[in-house]
């Protein structure tokens, strides 16, 4: 099979972790007889510096023409610390999500047997955790009307959802629940917010079409709590954009390191795959960042964008082996030998 992949490395550690995912993907492609054609494109601060725009038209065209997009990370402190900055790397990410119609962000949280004791949570609370968040990604407060009034002394951001936006996300959630343990949790704040009441109402109506799925409705504050008490009690969770942003960061540390969890963003056009972590600028260029979240995002890409299950499984298997054999970056080394980002990538590619 010929795979055309757009490669958006972005900022900070993005290029380093992307390099490892490329090595591993090329190795798995060679093993299974595929040919990958990578097309690099600019995004984030790197794109602002080069062409003044965090998601240039040329990058969009490359993404649209590709079968999948593999994404690193974006964002740099020099933009965060300047409230007056007119263009920000993050705007590129939001523009890209909207332009590619990436309304469903799939963010799994699972544990690795060899890392159970590295988790900030106790073993008995996390063993068996295998949950997945479906975060709505192109609506809500991220894309609502915003502004300033009252001589610049008042600011507002509005959260809006249409029934259609909720329904398409919820349907993906029901479908995913059917393929897993048939449990779906709708996370909202329906005791306060009108948009949440629309979410709940829409999901309740859909329940009739999916009689095998057992649906629960939980308030976001309660979920934030139970997520660290009994993460292994959840399966598929669906939620709006901002709640999903916050809860998935909370969930991402359960496995033992921020640098482990992959994600997929699906929608109307080309799908995109990226690590959950950010651009970790303090580590940029040092060859120390954990590449596994990006490598596992490539596994999700093989599985989801190309239907290549054996290839995805081969990547996951070699990642598990590297963890079991202690071929890990400093975030997981704990006194033992810390491998460089590039050494982990080389090991994975060689052992696949
Ligand atoms: C994420 C990030 C982004 C978001 C930022 C960088 C805009 O935190 O992908 O979760 O809030 O969606
Ligand atoms: Mn986030």
TrEMBL record:
Its Enzyme Commission number?
1.1.1.85
| A GO term for molecular function | 3-isopropylmalate dehydrogenase activity
A Pfam family it matches:
Iso_dh
List the subcellular locations: Cytoplasm
Pathway field: Amino-acid biosynthesis; L-leucine biosynthesis; L-leucine from 3-methyl-2-oxobutanoate: step 3/4
Which family does the record claim for this protein?
Belongs to the isocitrate and isopropylmalate dehydrogenases family. LeuB type 1 subfamily.
Quote the function comment for this protein. Answer: Catalyzes the oxidation of 3-carboxy-2-hydroxy-4-methylpentanoate (3-isopropylmalate) to 3-carboxy-4-methyl-2-oxopentanoate. The product decarboxylates to 4-methyl-2 oxopentanoate.
State the name under which the record lists this protein.
Answer: 3-isopropylmalate dehydrogenase
